[in-house]
Amino acid sequence: MPSTACLSGSLAGSRNRLVQVTSGLERLLAGAGSHLKPLSLGLIIHPASVTREFQLSVDALLQEGFSIKALFGPQHGARGEKQDNMIESGHYADPYTGLPVHSLYSNVRKPTPEMLSGLDAIVFDLQDVGVRVYTFIWTMLLAMEACAEIGIRFIVLDRPNPIGGIQREGAVLRKDFESFVGLHPIPLRHGLTCGELATWMNETRGIGCDLEIIECRGWRRSMGWSDTGLPGWHLAPTYRRQSRVLCIQVWCSWRGRTSQKGEGPRSPLSISVHLI
To answer: Which pLDDT score is estimated for 178?
Structure first.
Protein backbone atom coordinates (compact mmCIF):
# COMPACT_ATOMS: atom_id res chain seq x y z
CA MET A 1 0.00 0.00 0.00
CA PRO A 2 1.23 3.58 -0.60
CA SER A 3 2.76 5.59 2.22
CA THR A 4 0.75 8.80 1.95
CA ALA A 5 -1.07 11.02 -0.50
CA CYS A 6 -1.38 13.81 2.04
CA LEU A 7 1.63 16.08 2.29
CA SER A 8 3.46 15.70 5.59
CA GLY A 9 3.37 18.58 8.05
CA SER A 10 5.20 19.24 11.29
CA LEU A 11 3.76 20.09 14.67
CA ALA A 12 4.53 23.66 15.63
CA GLY A 13 4.95 24.55 19.29
CA SER A 14 3.84 22.08 21.93
CA ARG A 15 2.47 18.62 21.15
CA ASN A 16 -0.97 19.73 22.27
CA ARG A 17 -1.15 22.65 19.89
CA LEU A 18 -3.83 22.12 17.23
CA VAL A 19 -2.40 21.58 13.76
CA GLN A 20 -4.05 23.24 10.79
CA VAL A 21 -4.58 20.58 8.16
CA THR A 22 -5.55 21.95 4.76
CA SER A 23 -7.93 19.76 2.77
CA GLY A 24 -7.61 19.12 -0.94
CA LEU A 25 -10.69 21.27 -1.50
CA GLU A 26 -9.13 24.24 0.27
CA ARG A 27 -5.88 23.80 -1.66
CA LEU A 28 -7.87 23.68 -4.90
CA LEU A 29 -9.61 26.93 -3.99
CA ALA A 30 -6.27 28.49 -3.03
CA GLY A 31 -4.85 27.93 -6.51
CA ALA A 32 -3.69 24.30 -6.68
CA GLY A 33 -6.43 23.55 -9.19
CA SER A 34 -6.38 26.63 -11.40
CA HIS A 35 -5.62 24.37 -14.39
CA LEU A 36 -9.07 22.83 -13.92
CA LYS A 37 -11.01 26.07 -14.40
CA PRO A 38 -11.38 25.73 -18.19
CA LEU A 39 -12.77 22.19 -17.82
CA SER A 40 -16.39 21.07 -17.58
CA LEU A 41 -16.53 19.28 -14.25
CA GLY A 42 -18.79 16.80 -12.51
CA LEU A 43 -18.59 16.84 -8.71
CA ILE A 44 -19.17 13.94 -6.31
CA ILE A 45 -20.17 15.46 -2.96
CA HIS A 46 -22.01 14.97 0.31
CA PRO A 47 -22.68 17.18 3.38
CA ALA A 48 -19.10 16.76 4.66
CA SER A 49 -17.66 18.22 1.43
CA VAL A 50 -17.09 21.58 3.06
CA THR A 51 -14.45 24.24 3.59
CA ARG A 52 -13.25 25.27 7.02
CA GLU A 53 -16.10 27.82 7.00
CA PHE A 54 -18.64 25.03 6.30
CA GLN A 55 -19.26 26.18 2.73
CA LEU A 56 -20.25 23.23 0.55
CA SER A 57 -17.69 22.53 -2.16
CA VAL A 58 -20.10 23.05 -5.06
CA ASP A 59 -20.97 26.53 -3.81
CA ALA A 60 -17.34 27.42 -3.13
CA LEU A 61 -16.15 26.18 -6.53
CA LEU A 62 -18.90 27.95 -8.44
CA GLN A 63 -18.08 31.12 -6.53
CA GLU A 64 -14.43 30.81 -7.61
CA GLY A 65 -15.34 30.42 -11.27
CA PHE A 66 -15.06 26.66 -11.75
CA SER A 67 -17.37 25.22 -14.40
CA ILE A 68 -19.46 22.67 -12.50
CA LYS A 69 -21.91 21.01 -14.88
CA ALA A 70 -23.31 18.14 -12.80
CA LEU A 71 -23.41 16.77 -9.27
CA PHE A 72 -23.21 13.14 -8.18
CA GLY A 73 -24.56 11.93 -4.86
CA PRO A 74 -23.31 8.87 -2.92
CA GLN A 75 -25.18 6.96 -0.22
CA HIS A 76 -27.23 9.44 1.88
CA GLY A 77 -27.34 11.89 -1.05
CA ALA A 78 -25.41 14.88 -2.35
CA ARG A 79 -26.87 17.17 0.32
CA GLY A 80 -27.72 14.49 2.87
CA GLU A 81 -31.34 14.24 1.82
CA LYS A 82 -31.40 10.46 2.41
CA GLN A 83 -30.05 10.04 5.92
CA ASP A 84 -31.78 6.75 6.66
CA ASN A 85 -29.38 3.89 6.09
CA MET A 86 -29.52 1.95 2.81
CA ILE A 87 -32.33 4.07 1.36
CA GLU A 88 -31.75 4.65 -2.34
CA SER A 89 -32.33 8.11 -3.78
CA GLY A 90 -33.40 9.21 -7.23
CA HIS A 91 -31.97 11.66 -9.72
CA TYR A 92 -33.15 15.27 -9.51
CA ALA A 93 -32.24 18.93 -10.07
CA ASP A 94 -30.40 20.60 -7.21
CA PRO A 95 -32.79 23.24 -5.79
CA TYR A 96 -29.93 25.63 -4.95
CA THR A 97 -27.86 25.58 -8.15
CA GLY A 98 -30.21 24.04 -10.70
CA LEU A 99 -27.55 21.48 -11.59
CA PRO A 100 -28.55 17.90 -12.38
CA VAL A 101 -27.86 15.52 -9.49
CA HIS A 102 -27.11 11.95 -10.53
CA SER A 103 -27.62 9.50 -7.69
CA LEU A 104 -24.91 6.84 -7.38
CA TYR A 105 -26.97 5.09 -4.74
CA SER A 106 -29.99 4.33 -6.89
CA ASN A 107 -30.71 1.78 -9.60
CA VAL A 108 -27.08 2.43 -10.62
CA ARG A 109 -23.92 2.54 -8.51
CA LYS A 110 -21.56 3.44 -11.34
CA PRO A 111 -21.82 6.61 -13.46
CA THR A 112 -23.22 5.84 -16.90
CA PRO A 113 -21.76 7.25 -20.13
CA GLU A 114 -24.88 9.41 -20.39
CA MET A 115 -24.21 10.93 -16.96
CA LEU A 116 -20.62 11.69 -17.96
CA SER A 117 -21.49 13.08 -21.39
CA GLY A 118 -20.02 16.54 -21.96
CA LEU A 119 -17.72 16.39 -18.92
CA ASP A 120 -13.93 16.69 -19.07
CA ALA A 121 -13.34 15.38 -15.56
CA ILE A 122 -14.97 14.11 -12.38
CA VAL A 123 -13.93 15.72 -9.09
CA PHE A 124 -14.34 13.50 -6.02
CA ASP A 125 -14.71 15.28 -2.66
CA LEU A 126 -16.05 12.83 -0.09
CA GLN A 127 -14.90 12.47 3.52
CA ASP A 128 -14.38 8.78 4.20
CA VAL A 129 -14.44 7.10 7.64
CA GLY A 130 -11.43 4.80 7.19
CA VAL A 131 -13.41 1.54 7.24
CA ARG A 132 -13.87 -0.84 4.29
CA VAL A 133 -17.61 -1.34 4.71
CA TYR A 134 -18.46 2.34 4.28
CA THR A 135 -19.53 2.80 0.67
CA PHE A 136 -17.87 6.10 -0.27
CA ILE A 137 -14.58 4.51 -1.36
CA TRP A 138 -16.47 2.08 -3.58
CA THR A 139 -18.39 4.92 -5.16
CA MET A 140 -14.94 6.36 -5.88
CA LEU A 141 -13.68 3.10 -7.38
CA LEU A 142 -16.67 2.67 -9.68
CA ALA A 143 -16.47 6.31 -10.79
CA MET A 144 -12.76 5.85 -11.57
CA GLU A 145 -13.61 2.84 -13.72
CA ALA A 146 -16.34 4.79 -15.53
CA CYS A 147 -13.95 7.68 -16.23
CA ALA A 148 -11.26 5.31 -17.51
CA GLU A 149 -13.74 3.65 -19.87
CA ILE A 150 -14.58 6.90 -21.68
CA GLY A 151 -11.20 8.60 -21.28
CA ILE A 152 -11.88 11.50 -18.92
CA ARG A 153 -9.84 12.60 -15.92
CA PHE A 154 -10.61 11.74 -12.29
CA ILE A 155 -9.51 14.17 -9.58
CA VAL A 156 -9.53 13.37 -5.86
CA LEU A 157 -9.66 16.27 -3.40
CA ASP A 158 -7.98 14.41 -0.58
CA ARG A 159 -8.99 14.58 3.07
CA PRO A 160 -7.52 12.95 6.21
CA ASN A 161 -8.41 9.48 7.38
CA PRO A 162 -10.39 10.44 10.52
CA ILE A 163 -9.23 7.43 12.56
CA GLY A 164 -5.56 7.75 11.65
CA GLY A 165 -3.18 6.20 9.18
CA ILE A 166 -1.07 3.88 11.31
CA GLN A 167 -3.29 1.05 12.49
CA ARG A 168 -4.66 -1.50 10.06
CA GLU A 169 -7.07 -4.03 11.52
CA GLY A 170 -9.34 -6.85 10.44
CA ALA A 171 -9.27 -9.52 7.79
CA VAL A 172 -8.49 -8.67 4.18
CA LEU A 173 -11.57 -9.06 2.00
CA ARG A 174 -11.75 -12.26 -0.03
CA LYS A 175 -12.60 -11.87 -3.70
CA ASP A 176 -15.59 -14.21 -3.45
CA PHE A 177 -17.13 -11.85 -0.85
CA GLU A 178 -16.92 -8.69 -2.98
CA SER A 179 -19.99 -6.43 -2.87
CA PHE A 180 -20.77 -2.71 -2.64
CA VAL A 181 -19.47 -2.77 0.95
CA GLY A 182 -16.16 -4.17 -0.29
CA LEU A 183 -14.88 -4.31 -3.88
CA HIS A 184 -11.12 -4.70 -3.38
CA PRO A 185 -8.96 -6.76 -1.00
CA ILE A 186 -8.25 -4.35 1.85
CA PRO A 187 -8.52 -4.85 5.64
CA LEU A 188 -11.56 -3.65 7.55
CA ARG A 189 -9.63 -0.69 8.97
CA HIS A 190 -7.36 0.27 6.09
CA GLY A 191 -5.45 3.30 7.37
CA LEU A 192 -5.46 5.14 4.03
CA THR A 193 -6.91 8.37 2.69
CA CYS A 194 -9.14 8.38 -0.38
CA GLY A 195 -6.26 9.73 -2.44
CA GLU A 196 -3.99 6.91 -1.30
CA LEU A 197 -6.66 4.30 -1.98
CA ALA A 198 -7.34 5.75 -5.43
CA THR A 199 -3.64 5.67 -6.34
CA TRP A 200 -3.19 2.13 -5.04
CA MET A 201 -6.36 0.68 -6.59
CA ASN A 202 -5.68 2.38 -9.91
CA GLU A 203 -2.39 0.49 -10.08
CA THR A 204 -3.24 -2.86 -8.46
CA ARG A 205 -6.66 -3.22 -10.08
CA GLY A 206 -5.36 -2.12 -13.49
CA ILE A 207 -8.01 0.59 -13.90
CA GLY A 208 -5.79 2.84 -16.01
CA CYS A 209 -7.60 5.98 -14.92
CA ASP A 210 -6.13 9.42 -15.73
CA LEU A 211 -5.86 10.16 -12.01
CA GLU A 212 -4.91 13.37 -10.24
CA ILE A 213 -4.72 13.83 -6.46
CA ILE A 214 -5.02 17.30 -4.92
CA GLU A 215 -3.29 16.37 -1.68
CA CYS A 216 -4.18 17.61 1.76
CA ARG A 217 -1.37 19.36 3.58
CA GLY A 218 -0.29 19.00 7.19
CA TRP A 219 -1.82 15.61 7.95
CA ARG A 220 0.25 13.08 9.86
CA ARG A 221 -0.59 9.41 10.08
CA SER A 222 -0.67 9.51 13.88
CA MET A 223 -3.51 12.07 13.90
CA GLY A 224 -7.10 11.44 14.90
CA TRP A 225 -9.74 13.81 13.58
CA SER A 226 -9.60 16.06 16.64
CA ASP A 227 -5.89 16.70 15.94
CA THR A 228 -6.44 18.10 12.45
CA GLY A 229 -8.08 21.43 13.26
CA LEU A 230 -10.69 20.71 10.58
CA PRO A 231 -14.37 21.26 11.37
CA GLY A 232 -16.56 18.39 12.50
CA TRP A 233 -18.33 16.49 9.77
CA HIS A 234 -21.79 15.10 9.22
CA LEU A 235 -21.55 11.86 7.27
CA ALA A 236 -24.76 10.35 8.63
CA PRO A 237 -26.79 10.73 11.84
CA THR A 238 -24.73 8.03 13.55
CA TYR A 239 -21.24 9.31 12.73
CA ARG A 240 -20.89 12.78 14.19
CA ARG A 241 -18.02 11.91 16.55
CA GLN A 242 -14.71 10.14 16.10
CA SER A 243 -15.70 7.59 18.76
CA ARG A 244 -18.75 6.61 16.70
CA VAL A 245 -16.57 6.05 13.64
CA LEU A 246 -14.34 3.70 15.64
CA CYS A 247 -17.45 1.73 16.61
CA ILE A 248 -18.54 1.21 13.01
CA GLN A 249 -15.80 -1.34 12.33
CA VAL A 250 -17.31 -3.55 15.03
CA TRP A 251 -20.98 -3.09 14.25
CA CYS A 252 -20.84 -3.39 10.50
CA SER A 253 -19.15 -6.76 10.97
CA TRP A 254 -22.27 -7.85 12.88
CA ARG A 255 -24.83 -6.70 10.33
CA GLY A 256 -27.35 -9.36 9.53
CA ARG A 257 -27.12 -10.96 12.97
CA THR A 258 -29.76 -10.76 15.69
CA SER A 259 -28.31 -7.68 17.36
CA GLN A 260 -29.39 -4.04 17.37
CA LYS A 261 -26.59 -1.46 17.37
CA GLY A 262 -28.55 1.37 18.95
CA GLU A 263 -28.75 3.45 15.79
CA GLY A 264 -30.52 6.67 16.71
CA PRO A 265 -29.96 10.26 17.81
CA ARG A 266 -28.76 9.81 21.43
CA SER A 267 -26.11 7.10 21.68
CA PRO A 268 -25.77 5.53 18.24
CA LEU A 269 -23.36 2.61 17.91
CA SER A 270 -22.42 2.77 21.60
CA ILE A 271 -25.00 0.33 22.96
CA SER A 272 -25.89 -3.23 22.04
CA VAL A 273 -29.18 -5.08 22.28
CA HIS A 274 -29.28 -8.77 21.44
CA LEU A 275 -32.61 -9.78 19.92
CA ILE A 276 -33.88 -13.17 21.07
So the answer is: 84
Q: What is the DSSP letter of 25?
A: H
**Residue 80, domain CATH:** 3.40.50.12170
Measured CA to CA, the distance from residue 79 to residue 77 in angstroms comes to 5
This prediction has a pTM of 0.83
157 with 271, same domain: the answer is no
- Each residue of 201-229: pLDDT tens digit? 999 999 999 999 999 999 999 998 889 98
Residue 64 has pLDDT above 50, yes or no: yes
Residues 249, 225 share a domain: no
pLDDT at 37 over 90: yes
Q: Which amino acid is at 248?
A: I
Mean pLDDT of 149-163: 97
What is the C-alpha separation between 40 and 66, in angstroms, rounded? 8
Residue ranges of alpha helices (H) inside the chain are: 24-27, 57-63, 113-116, 136-150, 194-204, 242-251
107, exposed or middle or buried, with CB in 10 Å at 0-12, 13-18, 19+? exposed
Structural domain total, the chain = 2
208 and 83 share one domain: yes
Answer yes or no: are the C-beta atoms of 105 and 89 closer than 8 Å: yes
Give the model's pLDDT for residue 217: 96
* Range 131-168 burial, b when 16+ CB lie within 10 A, else e: bbbbbbbbbbbbbbbbbbeeebbbbbbbbbbbbbbeee
Count of Cβ atoms closer than 10 Å to residue 252 Cβ:
17
- Say whether pLDDT at 246 is over 80: no
Domain coverage including residue 259: 237-276
Type of residue at 157: L
